Amino acid sequence: MTDKKEIKPKVETTGHSWDGIKEYNNPLPRWWLWTFYATIAWALIYTILYPAWPLVNGATGGVLGWSQRAEVASEIEAVTASQSQLRDALVETDLGVLARNEELHRYAVQAGGALYRTNCSQCHGSGAAGAVGYPNLLDDDWLWGGRIEDIALTIRHGIRNEDDPDARFSQMPAFGDMLDRDQIATLVDHVQSLPNGADPLGGAGGALFAENCASCHGDDARGDREIGATNLTDAIWLYSPDDEILTSLISQGPYGVMPAWGDRLGEYGVRAVAAYVHQLGGGEGDAETQIGDAQAADAPIATGADPSNPADVPFPEKGDGGAASRSE
Ligand code: HEC
Ligand code: HEC
């Protein structure tokens, strides 16, 4: 009986039939149709307003003149404008008190981190832990000084390079020409014993040390930051305590070279990356200890270093003192 109903439908069929199943020729639902027309209208309006139709060189521009490139460019411009304010501020600020300006400091450290990863990590390591001949920048053992101004100076002019006349410079002589093998072997033993607390001037090694080495490394063997002479009493090695390496190092004289970055990164970049390195863990001095109060500004040592420790006094013989006179 149901079969009969289906054979005489109210609506016409399309005439298609599959295994006895027929297709009604119903009109499309109205809501569907209007939605369909609306999408066509929308598409037309859109292609008139916005860039749409591909042409040989590019595409139709659209009457609104909108372009993704212009959009991005204006966004970049806005960001650059807000950053250039921070950049200017960074260049003008006194590095010693940078950390007091939280926003500027955070910006400098972030920008400096990016600069570090591109320019410095190949030598100092991506984690800044250094390698043989390339100092670790994470610890508080500094060859040339660990205040932010010292670090900036090192970065700006580099070390022992030939490009920058203001590069930090010093040279340990090649003792292979001046001492014989036995003397050098004695010195190697002596140097190896220093981190264990041996008396720098004691014994045969001490005598040789006093005569040949103490002028730079100091009677206490704690080094001299003014000439980048390493502290030999700590267990931190720029090179290595290995017999062979020490022998050739003392015979030939080490000569670590670091490029100058002032021209490449500009003053802003130098300061940013100095701020980054300074906060890695070993940075010395902070806003409070440097110019936090009048006393600190007058004190000969305003570095946050231990004043009772002679090796921590960066430039003890310059009686002019004061943080300001030493910061470049
Ligand atoms: C081509 C390798 C090289 C690159 C690149 C390099 N450095 Fe150095 N850097 C050195 C060497 C070598 C020394 C140690 C020089 C010496 O023996 O006194 C050094 C020393 C330093 C020091 C002094 C550390 C101390 O104990 O006083 C700082 C700070 C420093 N580098 C920061 C940087 C920063 C920041 C960058 C990137 C902008 C950078 N370096 C890029 C090789 C490099
Ligand atoms: C004219 C100054 C000067 C004299 C004299 C001198 N040194 Fe040095 N010494 C340096 C400097 C500067 C460095 C760092 C070199 C570098 O960074 O490449 C250094 C580095 C070293 C190092 C590397 C330490 C490390 O951490 O890897 C050793 C070891 C050393 N000296 C031992 C000696 C001994 C031993 C003598 C005496 C025979 C001596 N030095 C005499 C200036 C001097």
From TrEMBL:
Cofactor(s) of this protein: heme c
Pathway membership, UniProt: Energy metabolism; oxidative phosphorylation
Membrane spanning stretches: 31-53
Cofactor annotation remark: Binds 2 heme C groups per subunit.
Family (UniProt): Belongs to the CcoP / FixP family.
Assembly with partners or alone: Component of the cbb3-type cytochrome c oxidase.
Listed PANTHER family: CBB3-TYPE CYTOCHROME C OXIDASE SUBUNIT FIXP
Record carries keyword Methyltransferase: no
NCBIfam families membership: ccoP (TIGR00782)
UniProt KW Signal keyword: no
Cited function: C-type cytochrome. Part of the cbb3-type cytochrome c oxidase complex.
Keywords associated with the record: Cell inner membrane, Cell membrane, Electron transport, Heme, Hydrogen ion transport, Ion transport, Iron, Membrane, Metal-binding, Oxidoreductase, Repeat, Respiratory chain, Transmembrane, Transmembrane helix, Transport
Protein name: Cbb3-type cytochrome c oxidase subunit
Domain Cytochrome c: 107-195, 200-281
